[in-house]
C-alpha cells in the first residue's frame, strides 16, 4: 500500500477539513444545537485526520514491529500494519478534549466574570470570592473527564496488548479498572441502582422497583469487562471489527436522536446529547479506519481498536443511563461469547487463532477446526459435541470406522455462520455478519421501545421518566 494519499484523496480530505473548520469557527456560540454542530464538524475533522494518518504512519508502525500477516489471502507475504486503531483512539481523544468547552460555553460565561458580566463593575473582593462557580455543572464536567480517563486507560491497555500480545486470561479483567471512574461518577451523579420489574413479576415481589444496590455496580463493572472483549473475539476477517462497531454506534446514535426529537425537553435529553457527543467522533474515526480495513485489508485494527470501541459503547451507556439498551444491541457479541465459552474456559482446546480457514484452492473461507487426532474429549463433552452437531450448532468430523472425533469446528459465530451457509468469500461473510448485526440491532431497539410495553408499564421515551 502506498503511504501517500492520491491527489483526489488529498483534495477531498482538504475540502472536508476546510468545511468542518469553518463550521466549527461559526458554532462557538451556545449550547444544544450549537455544540451538536461543533461535534459533527469535529467528527469530520477526526475522519480526515485519521484517514491521512493511517496512511502516512503505516510504514512507521511496520518498522516498529506492529505488523501482521493476512491469513486469508493467497499472496500474503507482505506484512500489513497492525494496531491502526491506536491512531483512531488518539485522534478521538484529542477531539473529545478540544470539544470540552463547547457544551459548557454558556456555563463558563455564567460562572466566571467573563462574557455577559464584563460591563458590571465589581469590587476586587467579589471578583475573588463571588465567582458563580457553584452554578457551573461540575457533575456534567466530571462525566466528561471520567469518560476521558476510562478511554485513555483502555487505549493504553490495548496498545500494550498489541505490543506484547498479552495472554487473554491476563488481560481479560483489566477493563474493570477502566470502569472505576465511570462508576464513581454514576454513583455521585445519578446513583439509581434499582431496576423496574416486569409487570408479571410485580404481584409476586410486591413492588415495582427492585433495588440491586451494590450488585448494580458489579453488573456495570462486568459489562465494562465484557463489552471490549466481546468486540475483540468477534474478529478475524477483514473489516468485521470496525463494521460491527459502526453498526452499534449508528444504532446507539439513532436511539439518542429519538430522544432529541421528542416535542418537549425530555428528562433524558441531556444524557442522550452526552452520548451523541461521544458517538459522532467515534463514527468519524471509525469510518476512516474501515475504509482501510475492509476487504482486501490494507491495515489491521489491532486489539486497541476493539477495546476502545467496546469501552466507548459501555461508557456512553452507563453515563447516559441506558445500559440495558446496549445489551440488546450486543446480542450477536453476547451469543459469540457464550458460544465461545467452552474454548475460552479451556473445556475444549483453544488455538491461538480461531479465524475461519482460507481454502487456497477455492479462494473461499471454511470453518476453522480444532483437531482431536491423538486425544479424545471426555465422554460427557463428547456427548455435548454430538448434541451440538445434531442441532447444527457445530461441525464434527468423525472417523467412519472407529467413531473417534477427528475435528470440531471452532466455537465462533463466524465459523458457525460458515457451517450454516457453506464456504463463502471473505467479503461476503463480512457483509452477511454486518447485515445480521443491523437486523438484530434494529429488532433490539424495537423490543426496547415497543415490545417492552408488554412487560413494563411504560417506555421512558414516551413517558418522560429518566430511568
Ligand atoms: C482474537 C481471537 C482469535 C482470532 C483473532 C483474529 C479469541 C479468543 N481470540 O484474538 O481467535 O483469530 O482475534 O483477529 O476468540 N487477522 C487476519 N485477518 C483479519 C484480522 C486479523 O488475518 O481480518 C490476523 C492477522 O495476522 C493479525 C491478527 O489476526 O495480525 C490479529 O490477531 P489479534 O487481534 O492479536 O488476536 P486476538 O485479539 O488475541
Ligand atoms: Mg484482536
Automatic annotation (TrEMBL):
Its cofactor is Mg(2+). It is found in: Endoplasmic reticulum membrane. Keywords: Endoplasmic reticulum, Glycosyltransferase, Magnesium, Membrane, Metal-binding, Transferase, Transmembrane, Transmembrane helix. It comes from the Eukaryota. It is an enzyme of class 2 (transferase). It is a multi-pass membrane protein. Its main location: endoplasmic reticulum. It catalyses: a di-trans,poly-cis-dolichyl phosphate + UDP-N-acetyl-alpha-D-glucosamine = an N-acetyl-alpha-D-glucosaminyl-diphospho-di-trans,poly-cis-dolichol + UMP. Pathway: Protein modification; protein glycosylation. InterPro entries: Glycosyl_transferase_4 (IPR000715), GPT (IPR033895). The chain crosses the membrane at residues 35-58, 79-102, 141-160, 172-196, 216-235, 242-261, 273-292, 304-322, 328-348. Its EC number is 2.7.8.15. UDP-N-acetylglucosamine--dolichyl-phosphate N-acetylglucosaminephosphotransferase that operates in the biosynthetic pathway of dolichol-linked oligosaccharides, the glycan precursors employed in protein asparagine (N)-glycosylation. The assembly of dolichol-linked oligosaccharides begins on the cytosolic side of the endoplasmic reticulum membrane and finishes in its lumen. The sequential addition of sugars to dolichol pyrophosphate produces dolichol-linked oligosaccharides containing fourteen sugars, including two GlcNAcs, nine mannoses and three glucoses. Belongs to the glycosyltransferase 4 family. This is UDP-N-acetylglucosamine--dolichyl-phosphate N-acetylglucosaminephosphotransferase.
Amino acid at each position: 500500500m502506498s503511504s501517500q494519499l492520491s491527489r483526489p484523496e488529498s483534495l477531498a480530505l482538504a475540502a472536508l477539513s476546510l468545511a468542518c473548520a469553518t463550521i466549527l469557527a461559526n458554532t462557538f456560540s451556545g449550547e444544544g444545537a450549537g455544540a451538536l454542530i461543533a461535534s459533527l464538524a469535529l467528527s469530520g475533522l477526526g475522519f480526515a485526520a485519521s484517514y491521512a494518518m493511517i496512511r502516512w504512519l503505516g510504514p512507521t508502525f511496520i518498522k516498529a514491529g506492529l505488523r501482521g500477516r493476512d491469513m486469508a489471502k493467497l499472496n500474503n507475504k507482505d506484512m500489513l500494519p497492525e494496531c491502526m486503531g491506536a491512531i483512531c483512539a488518539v485522534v478521538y481523544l484529542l477531539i473529545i478534549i478540544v470539544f470540552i468547552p463547547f457544551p459548557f460555553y454558556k456555563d463558563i460565561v455564567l460562572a466566571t466574570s467573563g462574557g455577559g458580566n464584563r460591563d458590571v463593575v465589581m469590587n476586587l473582593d467579589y471578583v475573588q470570592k463571588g465567582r458563580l462557580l457553584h452554578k457551573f455543572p461540575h457533575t456534567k464536567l466530571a462525566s466528561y473527564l471520567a469518560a476521558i480517563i476510562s478511554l485513555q486507560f483502555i487505549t493504553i491497555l490495548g496498545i500494550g496488548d498489541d505490543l506484547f500480545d498479552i495472554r487473554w486470561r491476563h488481560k481479560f479483567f483489566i477493563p474493570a479498572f477502566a470502569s472505576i471512574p465511570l462508576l464513581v461518577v454514576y454513583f455521585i451523579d445519578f446513583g439509581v441502582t434499582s431496576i423496574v420489574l416486569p409487570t408479571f413479576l410485580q404481584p409476586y415481589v410486591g413492588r415495582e422497583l427492585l433495588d440491586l444496590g451494590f450488585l448494580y455496580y458489579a453488573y456495570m463493572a462486568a459489562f465494562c469487562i465484557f463489552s471490549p472483549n466481546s468486540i475483540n473475539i468477534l474478529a478475524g476477517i477483514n473489516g468485521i471489527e470496525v463494521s460491527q462497531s459502526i453498526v452499534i454506534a449508528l444504532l446507539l446514535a439513532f436511539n439518542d436522536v429519538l430522544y432529541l426529537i421528542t416535542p418537549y425537553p425530555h428528562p433524558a435529553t441531556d444524557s442522550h446529547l452526552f452520548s451523541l457527543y461521544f458517538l459522532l467522533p467515534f463514527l468519524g474515526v471509525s469510518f476512516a479506519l474501515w475504509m482501510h480495513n475492509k476487504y482486501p485489508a490494507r491495515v489491521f485494527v489491532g486489539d486497541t481498536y476493539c477495546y476502545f470501541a467496546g469501552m466507548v459503547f459501555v461508557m456512553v451507556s452507563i453515563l447516559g443511563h441506558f445500559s440495558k439498551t446496549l445489551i440488546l444491541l450486543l446480542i450477536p457479541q453476547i451469543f459469540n461469547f457464550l458460544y465461545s465459552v467452552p474454548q475460552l474456559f479451556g473445556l475444549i482446546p483453544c488455538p491461538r487463532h480461531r479465524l475461519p480457514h482460507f481454502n487456497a484452492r477455492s479462494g473461499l473461507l471454511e470453518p476453522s477446526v480444532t483437531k482431536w487426532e491423538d486425544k479424545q474429549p471426555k465422554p460427557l463433552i463428547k456427548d455435548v459435541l454430538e448434541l451440538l452437531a445434531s442441532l447444527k450448532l457445530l461441525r464434527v468430523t468423525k472417523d467412519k470406522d472407529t467413531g473417534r472425533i477427528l475435528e470440531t469446528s471452532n466455537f465462533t459465530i463466524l465459523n458457525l455462520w460458515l457451517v450454516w451457509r457453506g464456504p463463502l468469500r471473505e467479503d461476503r461473510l463480512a457483509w452477511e455478519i454486518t447485515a445480521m448485526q443491523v437486523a438484530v440491532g434494529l429488532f433490539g431497539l424495537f423490543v426496547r421501545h415497543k415490545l417492552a410495553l408488554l412487560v413494563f408499564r411504560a417506555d421512558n421515551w414516551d413517558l418522560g421518566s429518566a430511568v
